[in-house]
Amino acid sequence: MMHRRTFLAGIAALVTVAPSPMGAASLWTQEAPTVVYVVRHAERAEDGTNDPPISEAGWERARLLASMLADAGVTAIHSTDYRRTRSTAEPLAKVEALATRSYDPDDLEGFAEELRRSSGRHLVVGHSNTTRPLVEALGGDPSEPIEEMEYDRLYVLTLTERGTSTVLIRFGAPFEG
Fold it and tell me: What is the pTM of this model?
């Protein structure tokens, strides 16, 4: 019995002292990474204004996004202050019972810093001219430019002390450009 306790104590010491393959931080003590889901707003309806709503195809994409992220543990939703971005976030906000917070698209570096300092899982809804710059500001790989009628990108950014990993997922009706 004494040998078994000594053996187990030795194993416990190795687990807490041995460096992990991920670097100096132990996997046992590492905090959960911040995950940021970044999308452009869904398809907009043309109503001749600067702040159009989303179209029926846009609502379909917004509901699909909510379905895809329903089990992702989203803890915060961020949107620019436009109807099309707020509407894109609306189905997930209802499912998760979360308020949608506005962010300033003219201060993406400041917003990126705010996201880096926060924990949890965030959905960010932006525009064709803010989505890629935000991904880049978070240290991610934004890929090629977003086309005018392209709405099917979902970036999944995992922010850790070691950097940012980027996964680009296409969802809903594909962009045919």
Answer: 0.83
